[in-house]
Amino acid sequence: MTTLIINIKELLQVENSPKEMVCGDQMKILPTLKNAFLCIENDIIIDFGFMKNLPNLIANKIIDATGRIVLPTWCDSHTHIVYAGNREHEFVDRINGLSYEDIANKGGGILNSAKLLQTTSEEELYKQSAVRIEEIMKLGTGAVEIKSGYGLTLEAELKMLRVIKKLNENYPITIKATFLGAHALPFEFKNNKSGYLDVVINEILPIVAKENLAEFIDIFCETGYFSVEDTDRLLKAASNYGLMPKIHVNQFNAIGGIQAGVKYKALSVDHLEEMRDEDIDVLKNTKTMPVALPSCSFFLSIPYTPARKMINAGLPLALATDYNPGSTPSGNMNFVVSTACIKMKMTPEEAINAATINGAYAMGLEKTHGSICKGKKANLIITEQIPSYNFIPYSFGNNNIYQVIIEGKII
Ligand code: NIG
Ligand code: FE
């Protein structure tokens, strides 16, 4: 099946050979072609170029994209999409003056979601999560990472990871799984953190690895959750099973989580709302992608990741949603891109790079996703008729999406 998209007003993020990521000043460059065509064979991009060079080929389907911009689908490298129920009552509690921390200290927060998930059947959990997968595909996301971490028992963590696996099998979107058993301390282990880490490391991790249920390992390295020492212990154990770290660090406090991540060659360190100079310095010349989650900052009214400072220091940066019931009940990458421009002063070029190629890198998908390149997945957003790509972040709250194509299928 050959699909030809013609008369594309501007084709974004084109490249001739796949690059790994973009860093620092390079992030300001977004390679594009004006008045372009793009050709797809089944699920793969096979050709693109200027309309004036359109080859003579027979296509099964032609899409006329006059006035429309075409770009690669978003790569959302940090989510918690598999969860049961919601926590809108905590949202109201926060409006009435409680902080995220106050709610967690009262036994709410992550533990609330865990309690509900533990008693939700696998079928029901799948059903609720599938709704969110369908929602984000329509919003232009073509690859997503999903974490466990609302189970906090062997049985419930495995249930979450099996749901993630099933979603990956049943939908065209590419899904990567992360084991986040160390997300919060279950009530039963209130005074026995090392006992819970024993369970995570000695009981759950070996099964996750053996059954190939996750590629990545995560931990919430934060005051009141897990310390740098806990992080070190978990990442050391996970490295024996070949699970690569992608960790929650520097959300509320800078306590050295980034340094622990870099020590264990983390693929990404995520959140980064609180960044000291030493945290920026330690990321320089590493393979670790810093990931910012601006819709979490928006929702919790906490600081935004200092993107300008980090990019100006030469670092790369990826953008992701953090879609979860507590701190970010939204999986809209279009909003993330707008918020990064509006609140973090990223340019549209930087934000689009961060939400495509750098997001792909943060999931180990840079060879197949994140750009318009021959041989990569046919994952495309075709926008509404808009004046320029600057309009995408500018018209915040409007998704500007006409059509989404994932692995060659129109969603
Ligand atoms: O990334 N910070 C830790 N975990 C999630 C929130 C979890 C929750 O509140 O349910 C996050 O923000
Ligand atoms: Fe998160």
Walk me through the structure:
By secondary structure, the protein is an alpha/beta fold. 35% of the residues lie in helices and 22% in strands. Helix 4 (122-138) crosses helix 5 (154-170). The model has no long low-confidence stretch (mean pLDDT 97). The structure holds N-(iminomethyl)-L-glutamic acid (NIG) and fe (iii) ion. N-(iminomethyl)-L-glutamic acid (NIG) binds at residues 109-110, 113, 220, 248, 251, 296, 322, 324-327.
Features:
8-stranded mixed sheet; binds fe (iii) ion; alpha/beta; 35% helix; TIM Barrel; single chain; Urease, subunit C, domain 1; 8-stranded parallel sheet; 411 residues; 2 domains; globular; binds N-(iminomethyl)-L-glutamic acid
> How many DSSP E strands?
16
At the fold tier of CATH, the topology name of the largest domain is TIM Barrel
Question: How many domain regions?
Answer: 2
Largest sheet: 8 strands, mixed
What topology does this entry show?
Layout: E1 2-12, E2 32-41, E3 44-50, E4 61-64, E5 68-72, E6 74-76, H1 88-95, H2 100-105, H3 110-118, H4 122-138, E7 141-147, H5 154-170, E8 174-182, H6 193-210, E9 216-221, H7 228-240, E10 244-249, H8 257-263, E11 268-271, H9 277-283, E12 289-292, H10 294-300, H11 307-312, E13 318-319, H12 333-344, H13 348-355, H14 357-361, E14 380-385, H15 391-394, E15 401-406, E16 409-410
Parallel strand pairs: 1-4, 1-5, 6-7, 7-8, 8-9, 9-10, 10-11, 11-12, 12-13
Antiparallel strand pairs: 1-2, 2-3, 5-14, 14-15, 15-16
Helix pairs in contact: 4-5, 5-6, 6-7, 12-13
The structure holds N-(iminomethyl)-L-glutamic acid (NIG) and fe (iii) ion.
